[in-house]
Amino acid sequence: MEVTGVQYQEANIVNNRGVKQFVCSWLPASQEPRALVFMCHGYGMECSVFMRDNGERLARAGFAVYGIDYEGHGKSSGKKCYIPSFANLVGDCTSYFMGIQDREEYKGKPSFLYGESMGGAVALLVSRKEPLRWNGMVLVAPMCKIAPKMRPHPIVITTLSKLASVIPTWKIVPGGDVYDLAFKVKEKREKIRANKLLYHGKPRVRTALEMYRASCDLEARLDEVTLPFLVLHGAADMVTEPSVSEALYKQATSQDKEFKLYEGLWHGLTAAESDEDVDMVFTDIINWLNERSSRSSSANVSSSSSPIRQSDLSALETDTKYPKEVDLKGDHDELIQTPAAVVV
């Protein structure tokens, strides 16, 4: 399907655990892409509707954009918004992204990761798992550190760990609908809330624990981030604190890093601010990507797999065979019936 200079495509893939996952892409309709951008969505979110504007804007700017719905998210199979293993989630993204990178038509193209909120954590962990594959990252209000005032008491974590081994899928973790905190402009907020592919329930026990552990792992190793990156955050964000992005910017050892803090803006920088502010944010993102694409277009990104660091999240030992792609059959009715939860 082509819309205003953008060619949109959908498909299903089957990962190495036999789980069907939804994938989609936005490609420039009338020019060769200057680079690839791989999108990692937030917790409870999805790509085809919520991230559509992101994909279309980047494709019109000349980038080939690819997204995947995590297991249990959006149109992918699995218990809604249940993350039994963050390592599996990262492995799924890594396998799919690498399969796209290795297509003959993309050999030598610069590649960038793009992550929003929890997707920022996913992007950081994907980049750590295969560091030689990437030319940079764009991180929007990323989940990469636990702000001091949000840090749970050790007793809470101990209790959560015990519950996760007994009732991992139960939705008993405190936390409700955060749409009113995440998305500023009311009309846009209500449109997002009406998206039946999103998750609106309380976090499941294992999901909350996996997100906490991933955040702690990233926080302990922010100084190991060496890739070029742009991190963007709203100064009035009440979901992930701006201090989190500031810590990443200060502690990362990357020689090419940039931090943009937008006064008065909330968590949903690309989705629910005024049209003028959303345009401003995307202008900053596209300008950054254009500059890094130009810098790296003459350099070849390694097309072979780099060694996986065994210390990355204790369970990052996942099969990296590329998943089999199958045609989209439109059989997601049962997924659309279950409303969702948006957070990080």
Please characterize this protein's 3D structure.
Residues 296-306 have a biased composition (Low complexity). Residues 31-270 form the Serine aminopeptidase S33 domain. This is Serine aminopeptidase S33 domain-containing protein. The chain has ten helices and ten strands. It has 344 residues and is α/β, with parallel strands linked by helices. The protein has a single domain, classed as Alpha/Beta hydrolase fold, catalytic domain (Rossmann fold, 3-Layer(aba) Sandwich), CATH 3.40.50.1820. Strands 1, 2, 3, 4, 5, 6, 7, 8, 9 and 10 form a ten-stranded mixed sheet that branches. The protein is globular, with a radius of gyration of 19 Å. The two termini are 30 Å apart.
Brief overview:
The protein is an alpha/beta fold and 344 residues long. It is built from ten helices and ten strands.
Main traits of this protein?
344 residues, alpha/beta, Rossmann fold, ten-stranded mixed β-sheet, 10 strands, disordered C terminus, Hydrolase_4
**Percent helix:** 25-40%
- Structural category is alpha/beta
| Main pleated-sheet profile | 10 strands, mixed
Order of helices and strands: EEEEHEHEHEHHHHEHEHEH
The stretches of 5 or more residues where confidence is low (pLDDT under 50) are 300-344
Q: What is the CATH superfamily classification?
A: Alpha/Beta hydrolase fold, catalytic domain
What is the tally of helical segments? Answer: 10
> Any guess at the CATH architecture?
3-Layer(aba) Sandwich
Taken as a percent bin, the fraction of beta residues is 15-25%
For the record, give the distance between the C-alpha atoms at the N and C termini, rounded to a whole number: 30 Å
Q: What integer value in Å does the Rg equal?
A: 19 Å
